[in-house]
Automatic annotation (TrEMBL):
Protein name: Lysine transporter LysE
Membrane topology: Multi-pass membrane protein
Pfam families tied to this protein: LysE
InterPro entries noted in UniProt: LeuE-type (IPR001123)
Protein's cellular compartments: Cell membrane
Keywords on record: Cell membrane, Membrane, Transmembrane, Transmembrane helix
Superkingdom to which the source organism belongs: Bacteria
């Protein structure tokens, strides 16, 4: 059991420091909405990972190998991410102007004082992670590589994946605590800039997914070149 946990540690570290849309939104949530809000968001992210792991474990690998490279899924996920980023970008400007107008009138209405909907944040984290088909590919690769090393034993596999998730979540807690320290030092303008930056990042990731969907052969060719180089 201890050996399985130690085997999982590098994967948990890799997952925790993978730079993607979830990473940036988690930091933004911690900075602008606080610790509990970030935990709610991250709980949704982890739930999506658990769902992916269950799908990978209980579905044939041949089917998932085809599914993870399905261009339509990349385009679909990319369009959702672009749409969300674009709507957020436009809405933030409107909200910021409203906030500034309220402050000029002497009203206590900063962006970060809005009531937080924790359930909505958990759903947001789940969907943002779930629409990224690359995450499915990641978990599929992990189980294909490590399941034979675990003798295909359900108990050992559960310990292994559970350890990955726990390490991942623990490191995210540290990231959230570090980001939270910035909250009280930020003005409404700084928060507005952070949120707009995250919206742009989501747009970029969404476009990247769409490009992967429209040019799947280019992706496969690049992967083959990398294998040849190695």
């Amino acid at each position: 059991m201890i050996a399985d946990v130690l085997l999982a540690l590098p994967m948990g570290l890799l997952l925790a420091f993978t730079i993607g849309p979830v990473f940036f939104v988690l930091i933004e949530t911690a900075i602008t909405k606080g610790f509990r809000a970030a935990i709610a968001f991250n709980s949704g992210v982890v739930l999506a990972d658990v769902v992916f792991i269950l799908i990978v474990y209980f579905t044939t690998s041949s089917l998932l190998n085809e599914l993870k490279d399905e261009p339509a899924l990349f385009v679909f996920g990319g369009l959702i991410m672009v749409g969300y980023g674009l709507i957020s970008f436009i809405k933030l400007k409107k909200d910021f102007r409203l906030t500034m107008a309220q402050k000029e009138r002497g009203e206590d209405a900063a962006l970060y004082m809005k009531r937080v909907n924790y359930i909505a944040l958990a759903i947001k984290g789940f969907l943002l992670n779930f629409i990224n088909i690359g995450v499915l590919g990641f978990w599929l690769g992990v189980i294909i590589v490590f399941a034979p090393k675990l003798d295909m034993n359900p108990h050992r596999i559960t310990v292994f994946f559970g350890s990955i998730i726990l390490v991942y979540f623990a490191i995210d807690l540290i990231k959230i605590l570090i980001a939270k320290r910035l909250k009280n030092k930020l003005t409404a303008y700084h928060i507005y800039k952070i949120k707009r930056t995250i919206s742009i990042i989501l747009l970029v990731f969404g476009v990247f997914l769409i490009v992967q969907g429209f040019f799947p052969n280019a992706k496969k060719g690049l992967q083959q070149e990398l294998h040849i180089t190695e």
